[in-house]
Inverse folding.
């Protein structure tokens, strides 16, 4: 009863309460508090009544526990993120399985199935949500810091979907003969390749006068060199990267929030006129990741 009551109070406190429940749910032990936190997140996110203790809390408040739409939406997203996190967390995975088999969840049956278990199976087996809010939030926190370039490369190597949703394979620090080393080569599910150059979020694309900076021109030259090498040494390149031919280039550099309106328009014009290289900022990767996640959630709900 105490754990259920605490979960109800947390949800009544709004978005911060959902975050608190997520933190409790991910605690290392197998406590009743962590399990009630998961159940509360699930119930709120699936628009179902809160734990039975919620009725007790409502009687104390003299009204139903206020759980608004934004809280329920956040709870739904947080539940999906917990399921994804459990793939690498044996204790969290065990908690989810324990809840799925518990009587309190089994009794919440709509139609002919257990919605909690069905949601777990859908996420695990279909893999329809391969990017999470937590993953994007962590990346956004990283780009707010002035870290070494390698730190950003390491995170993108671990989560290539942020770079390209069609990434089937990512090869870090791939050598192009003895001449060049790419930051990444990405092989897409459609068989095409990307050669990728990663700079830092703090690197400027434009000077104060609105011209392209020397670091930008140098990074762009690197991408052109990668593409030129593949074209000139195609037989050798294909022996290392099967079927590679005329790879598209991708340069990730700077932050869109640092650009003026004029600079944004100029960068868009440059990209529109480029036939083989895309330039995106780190902010663009965050924005694209959130759009992808929103689309996958709509698909999953459908």
């Amino acid at each position: 009863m105490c754990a259920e009551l605490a979960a109800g109070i947390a949800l009544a406190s709004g978005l911060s309460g959902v975050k608190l429940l997520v933190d409790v749910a991910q605690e290392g032990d197998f406590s009743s508090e962590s399990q009630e936190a998961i159940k509360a997140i699930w119930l709120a996110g699936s628009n179902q009544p809160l734990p039975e203790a919620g009725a007790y809390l409502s009687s104390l408040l003299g009204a139903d526990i206020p759980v608004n739409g934004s809280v329920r939406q956040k709870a739904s997203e947080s539940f999906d993120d917990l399921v994804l996190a459990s793939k690498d967390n044996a204790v969290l995975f065990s908690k989810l399985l324990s809840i799925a088999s518990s009587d309190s969840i089994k009794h919440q049956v709509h139609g002919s199935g257990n919605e909690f278990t069905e949601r777990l199976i859908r996420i695990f087996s279909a893999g329809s949500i391969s990017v999470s809010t937590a993953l994007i939030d962590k990346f956004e926190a990283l780009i707010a810091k002035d870290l070494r370039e390698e730190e950003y490369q390491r995170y993108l190597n671990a989560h290539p979907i942020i770079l390209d949703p069609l990434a089937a394979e990512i090869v870090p620090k791939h050598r192009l003969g003895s001449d060049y080393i790419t930051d990444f080569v990405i092989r897409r599910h459609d068989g095409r390749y990307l050669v990728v150059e990663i700079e830092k979020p703090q690197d400027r694309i434009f000077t104060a006068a609105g011209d392209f900076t020397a670091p930008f021109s140098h990074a762009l030259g690197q991408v052109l060199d990668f593409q030129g090498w593949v074209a000139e040494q195609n037989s050798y390149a294909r022996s290392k990267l099967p079927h590679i031919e005329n790879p598209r280039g991708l340069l990730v550099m700077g932050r869109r929030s640092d650009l003026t309106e004029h600079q944004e328009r100029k960068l868009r014009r440059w990209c529109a006129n480029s036939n083989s290289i895309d330039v995106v900022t780190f902010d663009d990767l965050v924005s694209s990741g959130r759009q992808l996640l929103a689309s996958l959630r709509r698909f999953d709900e459908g």
